[in-house]
Amino acid sequence: MTAEPRLLATCWTTAGTAKPGGESPRSPLTVAERIAAAAADGWEGFGLLHADLMEFQRTRPLAELRRLLDDHGIAQLELELIENWWADDERRPASDGVRRDLFEAAEALGARTVKVAPETSDHPVDPARFAERFDALATEAREHGTRVALEFLPFATHIDTLEAGIELVTQVGNPAGGLCVDIWHVARPGTDYAVLADALPADYLFAVELNDAAAEPIGTLFEDTVHRRLLPGEGSFDVPAFINAVRATGFAGAWGVEILSDRHRSLPLPQALAEAREATRACFAEADRRRG
């Protein structure tokens, strides 16, 4: 029998009514409430957004957050999100502040991964400079005992596909610079899951995220991904096939579950977490059945 998957509740899965692109990305729930709820439901990993980390630190030290995680048996912490880290314009000072905060927190808390974003605006990007900056970012992460996982996005203006992400991290070749692979970003544009095992070395696969969606997007891709994701196994994605494709790479980390939807945000957190975990476990059971 295959062992139970180690599941990580990404930052938005426990964020209550908060969402990307909203007036404030900060969760109305306290970090302590979210950690306790995730642990009570059997999650082994926990994700935290910069805004929520800063709210916690406004009144309490990082050492207390470390104790909360340890006391609740949270074995893996993931932090996010560094944006505009390649920029040379007015966006860079704010980016550098987030970068400093997250790397310092990662070192203090033992966070294994810090997620970083690609370019999503209309600012021009020099691919060579982008790669150089990614290498430097990864090197800085390693100095703090962590690593950076770039999450390619199908609505990005640079690094918008799995293939582009693979090309970047393998060409840069920094052991602390890899990818975050979300099934939504793979399946929505129709990418063959086989690309994972065929082209992505496990050494550069740092984070994996599971969810599902309807057959066709509703609204823009950003609107669809923020408001209408479904639980794994409830939509059009072949989640068990994706799980087995990831397994074929040799990936051995915790599996993130990232549910972004109006329905999920409307639920009490214990119910939202229980539904997400049970749906994900069912997909793993089907993946195991297919493997025989």
How would you describe what is shown here?
There is one protein chain. The longest helix is centred in the last third of the chain and has 23 residues, at 269-291. It contains 12 helices and 8 strands. Helix 5 (127-143) packs across helix 6 and helix 10 crosses helix 12. The protein has 292 residues and is α/β, with parallel strands linked by helices. The N and C termini lie close together (10 Å). The chain has an 8-stranded parallel beta barrel, surrounded by 7 helices.
Name a few traits of the molecule.
single chain; 292 residues; alpha/beta; 8-stranded parallel barrel; 12 helices; 13% strand; globular
Explain the layout of strands and helices:
Blueprint: E1 7-9, H1 31-40, E2 45-49, H2 50-59, H3 62-71, E3 76-82, H4 92-109, E4 113-116, H5 127-143, E5 148-151, H6 162-172, E6 177-182, H7 183-187, H8 194-199, E7 205-210, H9 221-227, H10 239-249, E8 255-257, H11 262-266, H12 269-291
Parallel strand pairs: 1-2, 1-8, 2-3, 3-4, 4-5, 5-6, 6-7, 7-8
Biggest sheet character? 8 strands, parallel, barrel
User: Rg, please?
Assistant: 18 Å
Instruction: Tell me roughly what share of residues is in helical segments.
Output: 40-55%
The largest beta-sheet arranges its strands as 1-2-3-4-5-6-7-8
In terms of DSSP E residues, the strand content is 5-15%
Head-to-tail CA distance between termini: 10 Å
Q: Which whole number gives the mean pLDDT?
A: 96
String of helices and strands:
EHEHHEHEHEHEHHEHHEHH
DSSP, total strands: 8
Give the helix/strand class. alpha/beta
Oligomer: single chain
Question: What is the number of helices?
Answer: 12
Low-confidence stretches: none
Shape: globular
